[in-house]
UniProtKB/TrEMBL annotation:
It comes from Allorhizobium borbori. This is Putative oxidoreductase. It is found in: Cell membrane. Belongs to the DoxX family. Its main location: membrane. It is a multi-pass membrane protein. One of its GO terms (cellular component) is plasma membrane. It comes from the Bacteria.
Length: 192
């Protein structure tokens, strides 16, 4: 392992040395901040329904083995929603990102171990679909012609990849902090 800083933009290490100040003063700070805001904003959006119904996840968290559900469900809402707000602003970035990374890791495990299944429709449902039932649009008939297997495969993949992506983003900020334009750095004058 090298002791060289991976974020080093020294001109002698770059193919186009003249870009060193662009990377140092513009590209890295902007990218780091924009991605932190995106990760936090997604957590806020996903956490808002849980804030509106803090006990709405009781059955879900207990099914995953987190007892008592009346405690874990509101904690999930708080970590996700308020943690997302703190992440957007880069305040207490590392602990908040770590908590959300762990939560998203549990979510990823859940999606991998509890798939959506192989089909939506029973053979009778497929026959009703083929009969041109007024209950189905053309798009539904197209997507569910195989009982929904391909559709569910896409949904399953998106659930797993989204959890993996946002978990990776959260752990990135847990490891490296809020970055250049964060309240940790601007107000606290230190990285958490």
């Amino acid at each position: 392992m090298s002791d060289k800083n991976v974020f080093d933009n020294a001109p002698d290490t770059l193919i186009i040395p003249a870009l060193s100040p662009v990377y140092e003063r513009f590209a890295q700070p902007l990218a780091w901040t924009v991605f932190r805001i995106a990760v936090g904003a997604i957590l806020v959006l996903e956490g808002w329904p849980k804030i509106l119904a803090p006990l709405g996840q009781v059955g879900f968290v207990e099914a995953m083995g987190f007892y008592p559900g009346w405690l874990w469900s509101p904690m999930l809402a708080i970590v996700q929603f308020f943690g997302g707000i703190l992440l957007v602003f880069g305040l207490l970035t590392r602990p908040v990102a770590l908590a959300n990374g762990v939560m998203l890791g549990v979510t990823l495990y859940f999606h991998i171990s509890h798939t959506f299944g192989h089909v939506f429709l029973t053979p009778e449902g497929v026959e009703a679909l083929k009969a041109g039932s007024a209950f189905f649009t053309d798009a539904a008939r197209f997507r569910l012609a195989d009982g929904g297997a391909k559709f569910l495969e896409l949904v399953q993949g998106k659930a797993e990849y989204a959890s993996l992506y946002w978990m990776g983003g959260a752990f990135l900020y847990a490891a490296f902090g809020g970055g250049y334009f964060s309240l940790d750095r601007l107000l606290l004058k230190k990285l958490f």
